[in-house]
Amino acid sequence: MWVEIPRRPLSQWLFKSRGFSEITEDMEQLERLFLRETGISELPSSIEHMRGLKSLELINCENLVALPNSIGNLTCLTSLHVRNCPKLHNLPDNLRSLQCCLTRLDLGGCNLMEEEIPSDLWCLSSLEFLNISENHMRCIPAGITQLCKLGTLIMNHCPMLEVIGELPSSLWWIEAHGCPCLETETSSSLLWSSLLKHLKSPIQQRFNIIIPGSSGIPEWVSHQRMGCEVSVELPMNWYEDNNLLGFVLFFHHVPLDDDECVRTSGFIPQCKLAISHGDQSKRLDDIDFYPHCKTYWIQGLSYGSRRYDSGSTSDPALWVTYFPQIGIPSKYRSRKWNNFKAHFDNPVGNASFTCGDNASFKVKSCGIHLIYAQDQKHGPQPSRKRPANREDHSPKKKISSFQRIKGFFNL
């Protein structure tokens, strides 16, 4: 009986019994239920009596094959984690009932196909976190765009994933590494379109994106240069143009040979922004990158930090940051200030660093793209106004920034 279970570990009791006791009375005081590495094959429909349950976690339950529809009656449930349950083939059909309460859903490692995901999942209007990693989906269902509050989407190590379509504009963090079947051109177009749609929302703060495995800056970026500095002449009356949303800055870094650099002391790579008029230049912002990397200098000592999972730490990567037009202080919002500059560096003055234990990098090229409201409607395209004397040192060969998506994007 449930009144006896607290006297011993619940997971141990369930593993031995390979069953889950029927719940005959309402249990409004129980808020969290953790079932890890148990032998259960299913939960009883009477779980609906746990009316106060806020968090249900089933981890590494190798025999679990189904979840009862009665889970939809747990109207206090905010977190549902069903992870590494490889035999699971039946999700509740009435997830819609949880649309006002469920904020976190983890279905990682359950070998699910896209047709096994009920359409009700896309009705979870309160969902903020979704993990569908290590499943067998070929595409992300279009219904995901209905998740209007979704901020984090994790879809790592999906071996059959071929296409990532349109995504919700509410996303600020995406992970999609270890997906070898992603189509390059299709995914590139759709993902950049999703990013531009994200920029159309009323964003008044910057954000960073890291794209490991990238072969370079997208071809449509209007202002590109080799090296670690790029500038753009601002359109006349830019400060009065509400159609100008902001600036997307690109820095493509490539591996260095081990003998090309020596480690440096603890510095974090930065994107330094400035606005200028003639010989006058004023600092706007220094954007620190926290790429889970180490930084390097040509001479010096090492700096240690966390690492990101890029699939291969020796791959090139593209770092992207967005800076909104509203971020330029009012004292510089005049016709006088007509040049916007971005410089990628670390505080010791050299744009070299390392990701992982052995691979070191330098910035090969950089770019700026002005984002207008019209860009949101028509997809990636050059800015509507370019300076007549534009100096373009971008690589001549065609490049795609999503050759293979193996890392994470921090929107």
Features:
411 residues, mainly beta, RPS4B/Roq1-like_LRR, 8-stranded mixed β-sheet, 8% helix, Leucine-rich repeat, LRR (right-handed beta-alpha superhelix), 20 strands, 3 helices, LRR_dom_sf, LRR_domain-containing, Disease resistance protein RPS4, plant defense
Describe this structure as you would to a colleague:
It is a single chain. The protein is mostly beta strands. The chain has two domains: 14-182, Leucine-rich repeat, LRR (right-handed beta-alpha superhelix), CATH 3.80.10; 212-410, no CATH class. 8% of the residues lie in helices and 28% in strands. The chain has helices spanning 10-17, 184-200, 373-378; strands at residues 32-36, 55-59, 79-83, 104-106, 129-131, 152-154, 173-175, 207-212, 223-226, 229-233, 244-256, 262-263, 270-277, 280-288, 294-297, 317-324, 339-345, 352-355, 359-372, 408-410. The strands form three sheets. The chain has an eight-stranded mixed beta sheet. Strands 8, 9, 11, 12, 15, 16, 18 and 19 form an eight-stranded antiparallel beta sheet that branches. A hairpin with a 2-residue loop joins strand 13 (270-277) and strand 14. The protein is elongated. Residues 1-9, 11-17, 291-313 and 381-411 have low confidence and may be disordered. Residues 375-399 are annotated as: Disordered. InterPro entries: C-JID, Leu-rich_rpt_typical-subtyp, LRR_dom_sf, LRR_domain-containing, RPS4B/Roq1-like_LRR. Residues 215-376 form the C-JID domain. It holds the Pfam family LRR_13.
Brief overview, please?
With 411 residues, the protein is mainly β. It has 2 domains: 169 residues, Ribonuclease Inhibitor (Leucine-rich repeat, LRR (right-handed beta-alpha superhelix)), CATH 3.80.10; 199 residues, no CATH class. The chain has 3 helices and 20 strands.
